[in-house]
Design brief:
- Residues 96-118 are annotated as: Disordered.
- Residues 96-111 have a biased composition (Low complexity).
- GO terms for molecular function: 1-phosphatidylinositol-4-phosphate 5-kinase activity.
- Its EC number is 2.7.1.68.
- This protein has 231 residues and is of the alpha/beta class.
- The chain is built from 4 helices and 8 strands.
- It is globular.
- Strands 1, 2, 3, 4, 5, 6, 7 and 8 form an 8-stranded mixed β-sheet that branches.
- The two termini are 31 Å apart.
C-alpha cells in the first residue's frame, strides 16, 4: 500500500476489491471512515470512468495478470484502489454535498483533516507536472479519471447487490490501483475453507474459491466497476 500510494497527492479513499460479497464490508459508520480506513467491495459507492485509451489498456493488463495468476493457481488477490479527489485540500471533508448533478463536481469541505502524511512536492506546479504523460502518468499511477456515485437497490435476497446503480453525480479524481496479495495459492487450507463455508453460505459469495472461478469473478467485477468514459 505504501508503494502504490506513494504520491504527491493525499489519498482520500482507499478500497480493497475482490469481487466477492461474504465479509466484504467494513461495518463502520460513516462518521468513523477516514482516509486511513481500507474499504471493501460492499462499501464501494463509485464507478470509475477512464478515457478510452486507458480503459483499453486497463482491460488488457487485467486479462494478462489474471491469466498468469490463474496459471500459477493463485487466488485471494485484490485490486487496491486509491482515490484523490481533485480540488480537495488536506483540510476538506469528503462527504459529497446533497443533491445530484449530471455535471462534474468535487465533494464539499467542512474542516476534517485529511493529511495522511503522503510526500508532497514543495514549490512545484503539481498540476503541470502530472499532465506530462511521458513521466508522471502511468496505468494505475496518477491517472486522471472520473468517479460516478452509485447507490444499491434494497434487496430481499440473501446476496447483496455488488455493484450499485449510477446516479450521474461525477467527481474529477486521480486514481491509483494495482493487484496485490498475489502469493496465496489454492492449497489444502483454502480448499477446506471453501468446503466449510460452502455449507453455510452461497459458494460463489466467498473469497476462497478455485483459481479459475476466482479469476473469472474478479475480472467480471472489475469490468463493471471500471468503464469507458464516453465524453
Amino acid at each position: 500500500m505504501g508503494n502504490l500510494f506513494c504520491s504527491q497527492y493525499p489519498i482520500h479513499r482507499r478500497f480493497d476489491l475482490k469481487g466477492s460479497t461474504f465479509g466484504r464490508t467494513t461495518d463502520k459508520p460513516e462518521s468513523e471512515i477516514d482516509p486511513t480506513v481500507t474499504l471493501k467491495d460492499l462499501d464501494l459507492n463509485y464507478l470509475f470512468r477512464l478515457r478510452k485509451s486507458w480503459y483499453q489498456e486497463f482491460c488488457r493488463q487485467v486479462d494478462r495478470d489474471c491469466d498468469f495468476l490463474e496459471q500459477e493457481r493463485i487466488m485471494d488477490y485484490s485490486l487496491l484502489v486509491g482515490l484523490h479527489f481533485r480540488g480537495i485540500s488536506c483540510a476538506d471533508n469528503l462527504t459529497p454535498s446533497s443533491g445530484r448533478s449530471s455535471g462534474t463536481r468535487t465533494p464539499t469541505g467542512s474542516g476534517n483533516n485529511f493529511d495522511d502524511g503522503a510526500p508532497r512536492l514543495s514549490g512545484v506546479d503539481v498540476d503541470h507536472i502530472v499532465t506530462d504523460p511521458n513521466r508522471w502518468i502511468h496505468l494505475g499511477i496518477n491517472m486522471p479519471a472520473r468517479a460516478e456515485s452509485t447507490v444499491r437497490r434494497s434487496s430481499v435476497s440473501d446476496t447483496p447487490q455488488l455493484v450499485g446503480e449510477p446516479t450521474g453525480e461525477l467527481y474529477d479524481i486521480f486514481i491509483f490501483f494495482g493487484i496485490i496479495d498475489i502469493l496465496q495459492d489454492y492449497d489444502i487450507s483454502k480448499k477446506l475453507e471453501h468446503a466449510y463455508k460452502s455449507f453455510q453460505y452461497d459458494p460463489t459469495s466467498i473469497s476462497a474459491v478455485d483459481p479459475r472461478l476466482y479469476s473469472r469473478r474478479f475480472r467480471d467485477f472489475l469490468f463493471k466497476v471500471f468503464v469507458e468514459d464516453k465524453i
